[in-house]
Amino acid sequence: MKLAKIALEAKKVKTIAAKIENAETNFDKTTQEPALKTAILVAGIQDVSNIKVSSAFAEGSGGERTASCTPGSCTKQAKTLVAQLDCLCHADSSKAVTAVCTKKVDGSTAWNHNSGTIGDEDIRTIAQTCPSGKGKMMTPTHLRTLVENVRNLVHQDGAVGYSGDYEATGCTSSSGSGVCIKLGNYNEDPPAALNKLGCQPVLEHLADNLDKRISHNKQMTELKSRLQKAKEEAISCNQKRGGGTEAPAPGPGPDPCRPNSSFQSAREQEKRMYNTQRQ
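Structure tokens predicted for Variant surface glycoprotein 1125.2939 (279 residues):
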């Protein structure tokens, strides 16, 4: 019954493969890439050279700098990563702490923390100083490490969490104040406060989906190997009967690859195996 067993194995493999192939793996570049760009840059923006302050901040930055440097989607808040970098790097117009990131990204025009005046070129310059990850392998572990590193940069002062340098009286970037991003209600729910940064949940979701895709690909590789093995065994069985590499044909005489000399379909062989197992 060797051929029947081979046929049954092939059938099982194909059934499992079909289920896995049709399973939702949640990894699609057409959805993942826009989500990342929206969190890091701005929705619809393909690269940093096209960033505008009015879209990096929700409805544009303005008013008091601490309010703008509170991440979120409300009016004038830092809703994207580039806006948050601007909060950490852009020099203020009053008693400014300079060269917090680098001298170059202090901005050609200082950020007036009362009016929120920022030039598009300044925010682009800040974004362009970030090292490129092009060509680097992004693994689930790498993505989760990035999220954890950001989490470790947050320190708590009272009920509020701050990323950056906080001394007192907000994140105005003035001397004696702070060059920072403010995370309100951090003491009540740290994960929810961190998620307002925008990138964290997107990166964690991407890491989870990459795990699913890796597992999916591994299973498909193993199934293909099993199917190839079944094929090779069938060919070997046929060659022992004096055939070639084609499918076995009925023939007289004893056949070690068949239960008897008459040809039986894989389905009939499968039924016989099932009935034998039940006895």
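Residues 247-254, 259-264 have pLDDT under 50 and may be disordered.
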